[in-house]
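Practice problem 4.
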């Protein structure tokens, strides 16, 4: 239950909290891990293949006076995820914030898309999000609270030609977010999604100039966003300032999906 006596105005501090950020070795996840550490959270940095880069994020956080540890886990694997969350609990003792950020694209036209490319994207983006919630929610229930933030996309809101697999996975993440929010609300756990538009990371660096120009023309603010734009939204949703917000999809997209 919410304690109305506790409403004291803006409070973005994450001091004393433990945050798990999947796919935090680069891009948006890295920015979220660093921003949450800057607000005082101890951070579990998850990666799949990029160990050296995950260690760089840990060093960056520690150099700024924060605490972080790295954890290898392919989030699409149910059993491996169970171990990952257990390892985090062994190291940190609790989980207050879970950010399901790990994601991939394998773009292509629907008529030519392979079964492997469809499955890989759904397994990482949607099943990976389910897996981490599945093994973290019980702990958050024990702790009588927590914040879960899932990375969706404007593609999941609007659909996108050439991204049937990706848009389906992200629309799925939105349905998963709302269902989990309804199941966990009475336990003091909020579950929200962020739907980024086009953000400057390695994921969008591979797009051709023509595709980038086409994308920019659909963004009212006329430019791609930066990973920090998403990180600040994630910090807010993980903070006490957002304690009465659940089941929402926050578009951080320069106005693209309005
Ligand atoms: P990115 O730069 O390509 O980074 C992807 C991250 O996900 C990496 O840390 C990667 O780890 C991790 N990852 C991939 N597969 C994984 C798996 N099976 N298990 C664990 N980790 C895995 O991507 P990004 O642009 O930062 O995107 C982050 C999230 O935002 C994704 O969910 C993406 O769909 C979403 N998003 C991005 C944009 C955009 O414009 N960039 C827009 C909308 C939504 P390794 O380095 O170890 O492989």
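Answer key:
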């Amino acid at each position: 239950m919410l304690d109305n006596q506790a409403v004291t105005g803006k409070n973005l501090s994450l001091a004393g909290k433990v945050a798990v950020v999947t796919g935090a070795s680069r891009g948006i996840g890295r920015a979220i891990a660093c921003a949450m550490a800057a607000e005082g959270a101890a951070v579990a940095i998850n990666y799949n293949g990029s160990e050296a880069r995950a260690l760089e994020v840990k060093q960056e956080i520690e150099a700024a006076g924060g605490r972080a540890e790295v954890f290898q886990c392919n989030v699409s694997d149910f059993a491996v995820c169970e171990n990952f969350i257990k390892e985090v609990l062994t190291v940190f003792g609790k989980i207050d914030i879970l950010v399901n950020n790990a994601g991939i694209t394998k773009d292509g036209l629907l008529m030519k898309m392979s079964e492997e490319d469809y499955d890989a994207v759904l397994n990482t983006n949607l099943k990976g999000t389910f897996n981490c919630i599945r093994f973290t929610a019980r702990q958050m229930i024990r702790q009588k609270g927590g914040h879960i933030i899932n990375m969706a996309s404007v593609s999941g809101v609007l659909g996108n030609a050439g991204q049937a697999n990706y848009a389906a996975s992200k629309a799925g993440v939105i349905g998963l977010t709302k269902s989990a929010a309804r199941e966990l609300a009475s336990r003091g756990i909020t579950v929200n999604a962020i739907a980024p538009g086009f953000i400057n990371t390695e994921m969008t660096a591979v797009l051709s100039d023509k595709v980038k120009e086409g994308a920019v023309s659909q963004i009212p603010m006329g430019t791609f966003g930066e990973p920090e734009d998403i990180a600040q939204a994630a910090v807010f949703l993980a903070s006490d300032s957002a304690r009465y917000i659940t089941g929402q999809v926050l578009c951080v997209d320069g106005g693209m999906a309005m």
